Structure formats: structure tokens, C-alpha cells
């Protein structure tokens, strides 16, 4: 069993942004030659998140941001002194972690699914911690 922990840096450019990190995660799995296992993603920030959603139509992430902003507006009546309570709501609702299975050397994602880092208090430089656990192809014992 291999256990690999790495981190990536993600740079956002706007206050609310979904950044596709699918290819980066796929490359890590390939680099470490993991054939069967899982990838765990963790975002150590209170105003960011990570999610899996459609990556074929960019309007989907635009609509998600629109809906989140409508549901959790940047209301001036919030008392948090930093003025980013809306970002805390969004991070809590979306979540700071995801687990993706690795099957036959590939991420087990649906046809239209991608992995997104979600920024709700940007622009900022953030990190995502990636833990890959599993077996390399040659290490799998068939019974």
C-alpha cells in the first residue's frame, strides 16, 4: 500500500470562482502509478471548498456561483469583522473535502464530472492537500 501526500497551490482571480483542478489530480495519480485506491482532497481554508460537478459546460459553474450568491449574499448586517461571512457559509455548504476512487489507474469520475477548487473570498493564493492511497499495478495480487 502506497500513501502519498502532496499539496498544490491554486491562485484565484475573483471573489467567487470555480477552478478546474481535474487534470492536476489525474497527473498526480499517473505520476505515482497508482492502479487501485483513492484520492482524498482537503482544503485547509475556511472560505474555500472543493466539489465535483459538471465540467462540460462552463455555464454550470457560473450558475452555481450565481445561486450561491443569491442564497448567501454579502449582507452588511453580518457581524463578522472581516466582512466575508457569505464566504464562510459557502465553504461550509460545499465542503472542504472530497474522496475519489482510483480504478485501473484512472479517477472514477462520471463522463461530465470534474473536480473544482471553489474560491469564495478571493482573489487569493490557496492550497489543496492531496493524499493518494493505493496499490501500483504490479503490487496487486489476484486471488
How is this structure best described in words?
The chain is of the alpha+beta class. The protein has a single domain, classed as Jelly Rolls, CATH 2.60.120.460. Helix content is 24%, strand content 41%. The protein is built from three helices and eight strands; from the N terminus they run ββαββααββββ. The strands form two sheets. Strands 1-8-3-5-6 form a five-stranded antiparallel beta sheet, covered by helices on one side. β5 and β6 form a beta hairpin. The chain starts with a strand and ends in a 7-residue tail after the last strand.
Strand content: 35-45%
What's the story with the biggest beta sheet?
5 strands, antiparallel
Please report the distance between the alpha carbons of the first and last residues: 17 Å
Strand order of the largest sheet: 1-8-3-5-6
- Under the CATH scheme, the architecture is Sandwich
The name of the CATH topology is Jelly Rolls
**What is the 3D shape?**
elongated
| Low-pLDDT regions | none
Mean pLDDT across every amino acid position: 95
Rg for CA atoms = 17 Å
SSE topology string = EEHEEHHEEEE
The multimeric state of the shown protein is single chain
CATH class: Mainly Beta
Count the beta strands.
Answer: 8
State the fourth-level CATH superfamily: YjbQ-like
Number of helices: 3
Please, how many domains?
1
